């Protein structure tokens, strides 16, 4: 256009592709009981070099929320989580550790913006789309707990 070779910008006629919704249908993560069982299992393993290496990696993934590729970039190799998870009958995969980390943060009242930054999500909505259901469940449980506390202090004898 600027050189006079064409009279209009053909790029204005292009329709951009729609972004694919990348949210998984279900997020796999350990709940508190499963996490305790998994950590107890790790602690019960014989202290071989391989078991110590694997156990350290799993605890590292839980503590940091790193993606498995990020953790393995630290030059650790030959880690076989699938056999351990299969023995415990969990279908969580490496990325499930990341989701478990995020759910632990969310359920312990860490600011979602901090979770976003910690997980390296480019935008806040990614974090909230993936994990906001956790805070909703927690809010419902708190409301029920508050209601039960309130009812304990009410004089319900008028209903008898």
Describe this structure in words.
The chain is mainly α. The chain is 58% helix and 0% strand. It contains seven helices and no strands. It has helices at residues 32-44, 49-64, 68-72, 81-87, 93-107, 112-119, 124-152. Helix 2 (49-64) packs across helix 5 (93-107) and helix 6 runs antiparallel to helix 7. The longest helix has 29 residues, at 124-152. The N and C termini lie far apart (86 Å). The mean pLDDT is 80.
Which residues form runs of ≥5 with pLDDT under 50? none
Largest sheet: none
Number of strands: 0
Report Rg: 24 Å
Mean pLDDT comes to 80
In short:
This protein is 58% helix and 0% strand. By secondary structure, the protein is mainly alpha-helical.
Secondary structure elements and pairings:
Blueprint: H1 32-44, H2 49-64, H3 68-72, H4 81-87, H5 93-107, H6 112-119, H7 124-152
